[in-house]
Amino acid sequence: MRIFFYAPFKPLDHPQPSGDWVIATGLYDYLVKQGHVVQKVSSLRSRWIFWKPWLWIPLIRERRHARQQIATFRPQIWLTYHTYYKAPDLLGPVVCRQARLPYVVFQGCYSTKRKRDWRTWPGYVMNRKALCAARLVLSNRREDMLNLERLLPPNRLAYVAPGIHPNDFSFDEAARSALRRDWNVGEEPVIISAAMFRPDVKTQGLAWVIRACGELYRRGKAVYLVIAGDGQEKPRLQRLAEEQLPGRTRFVGKVPRSEMYRYYSAGDIFAFPGIRESLGMVYLEAQSCGLPVVAFANGGIPEVVRNQETGFLVPLFAFEPYLQALDTLLSDKGLRRKMGQEGQKYVRSAHDLDQNYQQLEMALTRVAGEHLMESHAGDVAL
């Protein structure tokens, strides 16, 4: 199948990886690996484009360029990854309508509260039009499915569970020994956390972990914290760590995703609260390597962590319950091992990317086939 692929929020060639970028590239790579011919239509990023008039002319050019590509590439379907009010797809619906090409969205989001704020109203309207134009909208979040059901009929919606490649995140005993030797932590339990140091909920979440570990240390708990990531908020986080957990926090910098399994393997607990976290691929990665998780029960996290089985999920901003969850795992090596083993099994049974994307691939094939039959029927009628 020949597929046009577009990611309006964060294009595949964007220099800063994120959870959205990981999912988009994983989807693209899967389709290519399955033998489909996938063409990236555009690198235009539509984030807040309705308040950026200097991008409107490039948008018109990209629409024209996409139509030109249709003549040579002859796509059978258009697939957009992630359209929502901040970054609505302004290419796919227009081009597909003009070219009579089936339009499909993976990870479409819909929220009516955005129409009540003048700052987000334009994005709400544009995103709603994109979703309504889609032959099929797939989502990897149950919460988003509930919202989408208010807009689209069931036959135009489908759920695909999020996933990773578990073999890329397997426990490595040699890496554990080497890193723990470098860190000089002996047999002490190590808490791992990871996020980009952006001035938003990511840094807020890391600060939460640092304060929690600091409080446990003041209560007499042996705590060693390792944080992977980098960004402009690093000096602030380092100052906080020196204040809260002096000499017991290690910043290892930005670690390539392909190397993160080594750091998960060296840890004993993965702690990151995930404030309004869409999904959080790090939770799947950490569990796949055998780490129990401590996070907030919000956003998409309950879809990728089994509370009381593969980790602990506590109410949003509940500090004492968060401390208690960490304390319980720090104190009980057997529980850590049991939850870690459950996490490994859980990821491999429910969140294997190749298995889950087979459903998406079948849906795309079905939509393309239905469109072809409709086109032939229309030709016969003429």
Itemize the secondary structure elements and their pairings.
Layout: E1 2-6, H1 19-33, E2 37-40, H2 56-73, E3 77-83, H3 92-99, E4 103-108, H4 121-133, E5 136-139, H5 142-148, E6 157-159, H6 173-183, E7 190-194, H7 201-218, E8 224-228, H8 234-244, E9 249-253, H9 260-266, E10 269-271, H10 281-288, E11 293-296, E12 311-314, H11 319-331, H12 333-350, H13 353-381
Parallel strand pairs: 1-2, 1-3, 3-4, 4-5, 5-6, 7-8, 7-10, 8-9, 10-11, 11-12
Helix pairs in contact: 1-13, 2-3, 6-9, 7-8, 7-11, 10-12
Give a short overview:
Helices cover 46% and strands 14% of the residues. The chain is α/β, with parallel strands linked by helices.
Question: What value does the average pLDDT take?
Answer: 94
- What summary fits the major beta sheet? 6 strands, parallel
CATH homologous superfamily heading of the largest domain? Glycogen Phosphorylase B
Q: Give the SSE string.
A: EHEHEHEHEHEHEHEHEHEHEEHHH
**CATH architecture descriptor name of the largest domain:** 3-Layer(aba) Sandwich
Number of helices: 13
Outline, from the CA principal axes? elongated
Low-confidence stretches: none
Distance between the termini: 27 Å
Content of β-strand:
5-15%
Major sheet: order of its strands?
2-1-3-4-5-6
Give the structural class: alpha/beta
Q: How many separate domains make up the residues?
A: 2
